[in-house]
Amino acid sequence: MPGFHHTIKQYLGLIGRQTTVIKADGGEDSFFAVLEQTWKRNKTNFEDRATGGGRVYKEFCVIICPYDVDLKSYTKNDTFIIDGEKYEICRSERVIAMGETQFYRGILKKIREADDDVFNG
């Protein structure tokens, strides 16, 4: 029995978001993926935290990519751009069923960029 990886890729193309990965080596990949914000039982792990240099944000998302996008090949130096927001990869795994890769799943962390005038308030 054949795997469902082609069907999964087709549905990711229908319901997924356009994702562009800017690689540290200058390359660029584009594909469709599903992105969903994650929450745990202990939501304080995701609350903003004040530091001497500003606020630290902890926004994580689960990403699901098609079987032919090797999510494990990306590093923290690569930037994922989805809906104009920037993310870096924290974890990734290949999902195998029936002896074939069906899709890739990972955790992305949102990158917050500081405002230019943050100290001139």
Give a written overview of the molecule:
The protein is mainly beta and 121 residues long. It has one helix at residues 5-15, and strands at residues 17-22, 28-37, 49-51, 54-56, 60-66, 79-82, 85-97, 100-110. The strands form 2 sheets. It has a 6-stranded antiparallel barrel with strand order 1-2-5-8-7-6. Strands 3-4 form a two-stranded antiparallel sheet. A hairpin with a 2-residue loop joins strand 3 (49-51) and strand 4. The longest helix has 11 residues, at 5-15. It is globular, with a radius of gyration of 17 Å. The chain starts with a helix and ends in an 11-residue tail after the last strand. The model has no long low-confidence stretch (mean pLDDT 83).
Defining traits:
single chain, 121 residues, mainly beta, 6-stranded antiparallel barrel, two-stranded antiparallel ribbon, 1 helix, 8 strands, 47% strand
Q: Could you tell me the radius of gyration in angstroms? A: 17 Å
Strand order of the largest sheet: 1-2-5-8-7-6
Shape: globular
> Which segments are poorly predicted (pLDDT under 50) over 5 or more consecutive residues?
none
Average residue pLDDT: 83
Strand content: over 45%
Helix content: under 10%
Tell me the number of strands.
Answer: 8
Question: In whole angstroms, how far apart are the ends?
Answer: 63 Å
Structure class: mainly beta
How is the main sheet built? 6 strands, antiparallel, barrel
Number of helices: 1
